[in-house]
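Input:
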Amino acid sequence: MVVSISDLKNHVGEKVELRGWVYNSRSSGKIKFLLLRDGSGICQCIFFKGACDETSFEKFGELTQESSVKVIGTVKEEPRSPGGFEIGAQSFEVYQIAQEYPISPKEHGVDFLMSHRHLWLRSKKQTAALRVRAEIVSAVRDFFDGRGFTLMDAPIFTPSACEGTSTLFETQYFDETAYLSQSGQLYMEAAAAALGKVYCFGPTFRAEKSKTRRHLIEFWMVEPEMAFYDLADNMELAEQFVEYVVQRAIKNRPDEMAALERNTDALAKVKAPFPRLHYKEAADMIKKENPDFVIGDDFGGADETIVSSKYEKPVFVHRYPSNIKAFYMKEDPDEKGSSLSCDLLATEGYGEIIGGGQREDNLEIIEVKIKEHDLSMDDFKWYTDLRKYGSFPHSGFGLGIERTVAWVCGLQHVRETIPFPRLYGRSYP
Amino acid sequence: MVVSISDLKNHVGEKVELRGWVYNSRSSGKIKFLLLRDGSGICQCIFFKGACDETSFEKFGELTQESSVKVIGTVKEEPRSPGGFEIGAQSFEVYQIAQEYPISPKEHGVDFLMSHRHLWLRSKKQTAALRVRAEIVSAVRDFFDGRGFTLMDAPIFTPSACEGTSTLFETQYFDETAYLSQSGQLYMEAAAAALGKVYCFGPTFRAEKSKTRRHLIEFWMVEPEMAFYDLADNMELAEQFVEYVVQRAIKNRPDEMAALERNTDALAKVKAPFPRLHYKEAADMIKKENPDFVIGDDFGGADETIVSSKYEKPVFVHRYPSNIKAFYMKEDPDEKGSSLSCDLLATEGYGEIIGGGQREDNLEIIEVKIKEHDLSMDDFKWYTDLRKYGSFPHSGFGLGIERTVAWVCGLQHVRETIPFPRLYGRSYP
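Output:
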C-alpha cells in the first residue's frame, strides 16, 4: 500500500510503500540508514543485512542525494526518529539515480540559491516557510468567507494607474496599452456597492528599481472593502483579522515554526485590540530618536521600527497628512490636511503590513483629486460613477502576504516567502 | 443596531438600522414601499402614514433608483416578502440621492452593459453568478487543502512560454523581456518535487484575438500537480474534484441558482466515476456526425458537444495524439504516437473544463521536445534540472474557473463569470 510519510501514524505494524527522494544516506557495517523525504515529511528507513533483500543491501551505495526511490518496509513507532516513526526496510527500487546535486549542506551564496530556486525549494526551511504561507493564505480566506464577505477577483490588466505612475508595468493589449494592477482596491469599491463586503486576493505588481528586504516586484495582496465602514470600523476589522491569521499560523504550524527556529512568544501576544497612534504622536516619537526626520513626511523603515519597538503588539498609525497618501483617501472633516488613513506596523521591526483607510465619497472632491494627481478623467469615469449613483461611506485595507509571512516566520528577507520570487533584475527560474 | 439583511432572522421584533441602496420604490396612497438591497440581500421596507415619521413620508418621493440610504424600523416575519422578512419603517436618512441610473429594467445591449460593468455588477443575476464563483473558488481550495496538498503560488512573470508562443503577452521587465504566465504548471512540477502534492491558483493570460463565448484574455486556473501519480491516478483525482466542486455549489447556493433560473437536475448527476474514452473512440464518434472532422486533429467546440451529449456525466477523453499536445506530455510507452493526456468535457455542451496528463520525465526526451518546439534551452534549464535530480513520474491538470462557473450557473458566455472580464478589445472598466 502506497502511503505518505505524514500518514504513517495510521499504519503502524503494516507493510507499506513510500515514494520519495533520498534526503541523506549512510552505512555502518550491517546497517544502512536512508532518510527519505516525500514532500509530506521525512522518515528514516533502516536496512538490516539479512532482514532486507540482498540486492537492495548491495546497491544501497549507489543512492545519491535526491535520487528518487520507492521503499517497501514495515512501519514502527520510534520516538527518537524524525517524525516519530521509522521503516524497517525490506527493499527499494530506483526511479532515477540523481546526478550530483548542486545544493549541498555547505553554505551557498544567495545568488546561487536564487538561481536554483527550483531545487532550493526542497530544503527543509524553504518548505517550512512555504507551508506557513499556505496556512496564512487559507486563514485569510476563512476569515473573510466566514464573515459575510464575497471574494471578487480584481482584474490584472487595468487601463490606468492607481498607486502612482512611476512603478507601472506596461503591456501591449492588442491595439491599446494596458498596465498590470498595482492594487485591486478601486475595483473593490465598485464591488462593495454591489455586494456590501468584498475582498480580492491576487498578485499585484510594482516596478520598483530597488533591492530591499521588504520589496518584491510581484507580490500577493488581500484587499477587503466594506460598504458603510468608517475609519474606526476599518481598524477594528483589521486588528481582528491580523490576530486571527497570526494565531492560526502558530497554532496549526508548530513543526514548521520549529524547523524555522522561530520563537513564537512575541507572536502569541498579537491579540486585539492594538494600540492606535495619531500620525503626529508617531512623528514626535520618531523625531526624538531621528532628528533628521521631517514631520509631515512619510516614515522610512527605520522610522517605523522606532515606533513599533515601543509596543508588544502591532500598532496602528492613523491620519497621515493627505499630501503623502493616495488620491482616493478621504480627508478628515474635523482635521483639515489629515487623511482618514491607517497603516499597521508589525512587531519586531517588520514594518508596515497593512495600509488602508476611508475612501473619498464626494464626487466633486474626487474629481479635483484625480486632476491634481494628473490621472486621466476618461480612465476613471467608471470610478467617479460610484460617486454619482448612490455614493456611500466605505473603507478598506490591503495586507501584503509576503511581509506577513516574513514576520510570522521570522525571516529577514521576503524572497523566501513566495515559491518563485520576482525581484529587481531577477525573473528566473 | 446596524444589521445586514441576511441577518434579519436573528432580529425579529427588534428595532434595527439597515444601510443600503434603493432597489425599487413605489407609493400607494397611505403606504410607501421601499425595496432595499445591501449586498447581503434585498428587503422590503414599508412606510405607513402615521406609523413612520412625517418627514420621511413626505420626502419618500425624492428617492431614486440606487440612492444610498439608512432605514430604521422594526423587523417582522413576512413569508410573502423577498427573503422572508420585512421592515415596519420608522424613518430613513439619505447618504446620497443618485443621479438617473443608466441601467434600467429595459433591455440593454451587451456592449453597453460591459462598459457599465462597475454598475451592472449590482444586478440580481450578476451578484448571483459571482456568489457562485466565490463558492466554487472556496470549494476548490477546501478540496485540495483537505487532501494533503500545499498551495504554491506560481509566478506571473516568466522568462519563457509554455503553451505556444503565439498568444503571449510581453512586458519590459527592467532590462529584460518577460511574459505573462499562460499556466503555472511547469513551476508546479518543481514544487511537486519539494512538497509532493501541490497546486497553484491564480490568473493566467492568453492573447487570443478571438471573440468566443468560452474565451477570456485573463482567466483564473487551478493547477494541481502530484508526484508519483500516473494518468489513471490523475483522472481519478480529477473526477472526485469536479464532483466535489459541483455538488457543493448546488448545495450551498440554492438561492443563487434560483435567481439564475438554473435547473440543477443535470448537475446533480455529476458524480464520480466519469466515463473514459480513448481519443480514437471519441474521434470515431465525431466523424460519424461531422464528416469534415479529420481523425488525428484536435476537437472543436461542436465536436466536443457531439461527444459530451452522449453522456449524463462529464466525460474524459484520453491519449490524444502527441503532436497536438504540449511538449511536456509523456508519450504512452505502450502506444507510440499517443500522449498520456486527458481532457474532461463538461455536460450540457459546456465543453472542455480540464486539460491534463502525465508529464515526460525522461531527460533526453524532454530535451528533444524542447528543441522540436523551438523553445530556448537556456530558459528551460531549470525545468530540465527536474529530470536530472531525482526525476519522478508525475501528473496534473488545470481547471478553468470561468468555464466551470458558466457551466454550473448555466450561463451562455464566460463574460458574466468574473467581476471584470478582459476580452479581445476590452480592458475597461
